[in-house]
Write a structure and sequence with these properties.
Transcription initiation factor IIE subunit beta; nucleus; TFIIE_bsu_DNA-bd; DNA binding; transcription; three-stranded antiparallel β-sheet; Arc Repressor Mutant, subunit A; mainly alpha
Length: 288
C-alpha cells in the first residue's frame, strides 16, 4: 500500500479523535416530570372542589312542625272536654263513643297520630273525662244535679268538719249553679277569701242562729287580731288562764260490732231418753 495514503489515514484519525462530539443516547425510562404534571393538576383540581352540603333534615322532624302538632293535639283535647262539659250542663248525661265525639265536634279530619294519642293517653288520663265501656262522658268534681244535692253536700261537709266548698267547683259540677244558689240563699253562707278572692260556700245551720247583744259584739270587734296566727292567740289565752278548744272537728263515735255469742253445744245436743214406752206404768215415790 502506498505509504502516503497510510500517513493521511493516520492524520485523519487523529483529527477525528481530537474533535469533541455530542451523542444523543436513547433512555430506557421516560422522564418523570412529563407524566407527573397531569396528576398534580388533577389533585389540585380535586382539592379546589368543595364537598357537597349534607341533605336537609325531613320537614316532619323540624321544631316548627313538632310545636304545631302539639298545639293541634291539645286544641283537639280542649274542644272535646268543653263539648262533654256542655252536654253535662244541658242535662244530657248519656255517654258518647270516640267517633261520635269527633262527629259532633267537627274533628273528623284529625290525623291518625292525634287520634291514637287521644284514645290511648289523653282521654283516659284526663281527670275531667269518665271512660266506661268504651264511651266517654264528663266527670264533674261533685255528683250533684239540683239544689237539693247542693244543700245535702254542704250539710255533709259541715257535719264532718270539712268546712266549705269553692264556688268555682260548684259551678263546674252543677248545671245552672247560680240559679240554685239563689234559691238556697237563706240556707248557706258565702265568704270571700282575702288572699285569692275566691268565694267559699258554707252550710247555714239553724241551730247556731242566735242573737248576740251589741255590747259583746263591740267587745269582739274591738280586739285586733291582724297579723296573729293561731299559735300566738293560743299562747296569749294561756297567759290569761283561758283554755281553748283543742279540736274543733266533729268526733265520730265508732261503734264496736256486737259480739256474736256462740251457741253452746248443749242446746243443739239431743238428749237420749230411755224407757219412754213405760211412761204410763212408772210411779213417782219422791214425795212418799
Amino acid at each position: 500500500m502506498d505509504p502516503a495514503l497510510l500517513k493521511e489515514r493516520e492524520l485523519f484519525k487523529k483529527r477525528a479523535i481530537a474533535q469533541p462530539v455530542v451523542e444523543n443516547r436513547k433512555t430506557k425510562n421516560p422522564p418523570k416530570h412529563n407524566n407527573a404534571a397531569p396528576f398534580k393538576n388533577k389533585n389540585k383540581s380535586k382539592s379546589n372542589q368543595k364537598a357537597p352540603p349534607p341533605p336537609p333534615p325531613p320537614a316532619s322532624f323540624s321544631k316548627q312542625n313538632s310545636s304545631h302538632q302539639s298545639q293541634s293535639k291539645f286544641a283537639a283535647l280542649a274542644k272535646i272536654v268543653q263539648h262533654l262539659k256542655q252536654l253535662h250542663f244541658d242535662g244530657d248525661s248519656h255517654s258518647l263513643t270516640f267517633q261520635e265525639i269527633l262527629d259532633e265536634t267537627n274533628q273528623l279530619d284529625l290525623t291518625s297520630t292525634v287520634k291514637q294519642w287521644l284514645i290511648i293517653e289523653a282521654l283516659p288520663l284526663n281527670p275531667k273525662i269518665l271512660l266506661s265501656n268504651g264511651k266517654y262522658s264528663f266527670k264533674p268534681l261533685f255528683n250533684i244535679r239540683n239544689k237539693n244535692g247542693l244543700l245535702k253536700l254542704l250539710r255533709n261537709y259541715d257535719d264532718q268538719g270539712r268546712g266549705g266548698i269553692y264556688l268555682d267547683d260548684v259551678r263546674e259540677s252543677l248545671p245552672h249553679a247560680d240559679k240554685c244558689m239563689a234559691l238556697l240563699d237563706d240556707q248557706m253562707y258565702t265568704v270571700t277569701r282575702p288572699v285569692d278572692k275566691k268565694v267559699v260556700l258554707f252550710y247555714k245551720d239553724a241551730d247556731y242562729e242566735f242573737q248576740v247583744e251589741p255590747e259583746f259584739q263591740q267587745l269582739w270587734r274591738s280586739i285586733p287580731v291582724d297579723g296573729l296566727d293561731e299559735d300566738k292567740v293560743s299562747a296569749y289565752l294561756k297567759k290569761q288562764r283561758i283554755v281553748g278548744m283543742q279540736d274543733n272537728g266533729v268526733k265520730r263515735r265508732v261503734l264496736a260490732a256486737p259480739n256474736k255469742r256462740k251457741r253452746s253445744q248443749k242446746q243443739n245436743k239431743k238428749v237420749k231418753r230411755h224407757n219412754d214406752h213405760l211412761g204410763d206404768i212408772l210411779e213417782d215415790y219422791s214425795e212418799k
